[in-house]
Input
Amino acid sequence: MYLRPMLDETLTPEERAVVAKAKAFAADHVAPNASRWEWERRYPLETIRAACAVRLNTIELAKTHGGQGLSFSCKLRAFEEIAKADFAFAFALINHHNACARFARDGQPGHVARLLPRLLTGELIGCAGLSEPGVGSDFGGLEMKAEQIEGGWKLNGAKAWITNAAVAGLSVAYAQTDRSHGYRGIACFAIEAERPGFHREPPFELHGGHAIGVGGFRLVDYIAPDEAVLHPPGAAFKAALAGINGARAYVAAMCCGMLQASLETAVRYTQQRKTFGQAVIDHQGVRWKLVDAAADLEAARLLTYRAARLIDAGQDAVLPAAYAKKFATDMAVQRIADCIQAMGANGLRADYPLARHLAGAKIAAYTDGSIEMMNERIGAALPQIFG
Output
């Protein structure tokens, strides 16, 4: 594999050490337990807290708030390594990481001083609060309402398909303050699960990815004090979109991690397994499928790492991130399935991680903008690119 070192060479020695730490943590704590989390259908809170103990939730967090203040590319590479062991765990941890960084950056000083220490240790788990039961990718159509009252805001509504919702104690949540203003009426609040009016829904039962802790919550006359406003109406929508390019890039990187792990498993297996007097990998039909997967992995990394470098440089990464997510998620579903096929029926056994990675790739195809949304985003730019 050539492209991982290509990006790693742009990292500082400190950042490369963080990537190595993430890789070791995944090998020691995630890989040995991921299948058990799936069978038990539970959220691995103890392992999330273990990751917090080695500061994998503070990579981008500013040093002034107790973080490491490192680059986006460093975070992307670290979580690519973790996703090689399990996408669901990696996605749960990166969402907690992001909630820590956003709350620290945008919260009121007193509020941050009270809650951030608990987030950093994992005593409180953070989550985003975007999707709703009837609103997914159409962020401008949010139905959760926020009504300004004396000293704060009263919120009513529901969120759904929220990573970490099963256990989260703090949500960076978005609500509509005035529907007549459209997306300009959206505000962002720090919602505490310990306050009256917060009602947690049971975690969703899925056919894979239970470590993601996906679920929802309802707010019923929930009072958010003024200190809980992270972005007022007119600023929240723009702030939310500012992070979407990064999310699309690191989801693409996680898909690369899962496919690499699947290829490593499939190649080892097909080298050892013999049929018709020769190793399975020596059958051209099987070998060429794995070649296609390897080629797509390299292409996906080129797209993904380009987007990461642009994000770190503060340049326009909207289309590069969309290209990366569209290609990486789509190809991961197909190519991980090809790796399973190369192993025959044994590819489905729980002894191997491939079926779990396939479920993770399918989850990735929906998160932070579906493949269809990427098509629309890229399609809207076609006249400017090729017209």
